[in-house]
Amino acid sequence: MNFWEKVSGMDRRWIYLLVAISVIFPMLVVIKFPVQITPEARQLFDAVESLPDSSVIFLTFDYYPSTLAETEPMSVAALNQMFRKNMKVVTMTTVPLGGPSIAERVTRKLAEKYGKVYGVDYVNLGYKANYVAVLKGMGSSIEAIYPADNTGTMLKDLPLMQKVKNYNDVKFIYVVADNGIIDYWISIVNAQYGTPVGAGVTAVMAPKMYSFVEAKQLTGLLGGMKGAAEYERLVNHEGNAIRGMDAQSMAHLLIIFLVVIGNIGFFATRKLRRGAQG
Amino acid sequence: MTFFGHFEIWLSAFLVLSLFSFLYKDNPFYKMAEHIFAGLSAGYYVGLIWQAVIIQQLVNPMFDQGHWWLVFPGILGALMFARFFSKWSWISRISLAFVIGNTAGVFLISQLHGFVLPQVVSTMISLNPAQGFAATLSALVIVIGVISTLIYFYFSKEHTGILGGTAKVGIWFIMISFGAHFGYTVMGRISLLIGQVQFLLFDWGGSIKQIF
């Protein structure tokens, strides 16, 4: 058995080990690969930055805990920008598992950092089932859909929500999502109510979203951990995404190397296979 | 950090490692972690829906605010449970008919108004060279890509001659699109691994350091 045959028949667990090393090593030895800012991330940042201070902005936590590595840094970076600009932030989620508690944890932590008051500077609406009805219904009345916030306080008792009755009172919707809900923010809220929508999505979803940016249905886009790292750089907040990018780049280099080796091995052993077949 | 904080991190780390152990081979630790996740998710979901929908949107408005008409959607919801009884299961079709009719109406507008029309409009772009080389090239790629890909999916005529040649160009665009999707998918999966490794190295590692 020659070298290429051995490579072709290698136990996949060796590849898992190599990937694990490529991810762990850069976390212990910081390399600092450069993070370039894409026009889509810049567009999203500028859209939020250009809003007047104290504007009401929606920030959604439409993601499950399984994608926290990609999505949470986006929410954290976005909240840093919004609170720094003294915006009034309304958070919500259409994801039942994890969404409400992640929104609560992240907003409370950032609000404490910037000295923001719950009910006045920010409100967490929490979760409500049936996202199509929720998105459509909030166009008429947010209170009809969310009579109470995440902790059960009635919306009529929260000063911020006295000014926010429906999408007309919201300047921008910043969606962070790991699922198809983003399609409905675009097709229901942006298309039918005209409220600008920007999005941070997981890498798996990102390619599809570029066509919405091109069609101006999305105002800016962040794709995966790379997008989150770009936003962290834009808001000058070094978080988990920037810290994870070295590992991401190393793993990508390894995968490119394995793809090249795998293909060379395939072609090198093809002759032998054909010979064996007769 | 409190005892509970340490316990939470150690429990999470144990479950993460149990799930990762599947990469070596299937084992009881993996199975246990998988079942805990499935059971917890189901329980949490039921509790959340009960509070956020049944209590907040049905019971409270009916009894506290006198919104008595909510009894009708409440009955429609309850009828769905008729599916559990074979003799009465046909009743659930009333609720299903309402859901299907409502969904079709909402989606018809949102798909047409939100996706089809804006996407078609965004492909009707100027190819005038006066807008600059880069913009013209980008517009040309979009126009050629859309037309050739649509022709690839036109199956009413055999793909020969000009039609066949254009369809082949369409295949190239589709393949490049698949490549972009695959590349992004790899990036996404590696990101998830990075998230868990960050947790194990820094959160769990920090807890180990603090305890020992």
Give a short account of the largest sheet of chain A: 6 strands, parallel
Write down the CATH class of the largest domain in chain A: Alpha Beta
Largest sheet descriptor of chain B: none
Overall mean pLDDT of chain A stands at: 93
Output the helix-strand order of chain A: HHHEHEHEHHHEHEHEHH
User: What gap, in angstroms, lies between the N and C termini of chain B?
Assistant: 13 Å
What would the average pLDDT of chain B be, to the nearest integer?
Answer: 93
What topology does this entry show?
The complex is a heterodimer of chains A (278) and B (212).
Chain A: H1 3-8, H2 12-28, H3 39-49, E1 56-62, H4 68-84, E2 88-93, H5 99-114, E3 122-127, H6 131-137, H7 142-145, H8 159-163, E4 172-177, H9 181-193, E5 197-201, H10 206-214, E6 221-223, H11 224-234, H12 240-277
Parallel strand pairs in A: 1-2, 1-4, 2-3, 4-5, 5-6
Chain B: H1 3-20, H2 28-64, H3 71-79, H4 92-123, H5 133-152, H6 161-211
Describe this protein with a few key phrases.
heterodimer; A: 278 residues; alpha/beta; Rossmann fold; 2 domains; 6-stranded parallel sheet; 12% strand; B: 212 residues; mainly alpha; 0% strand
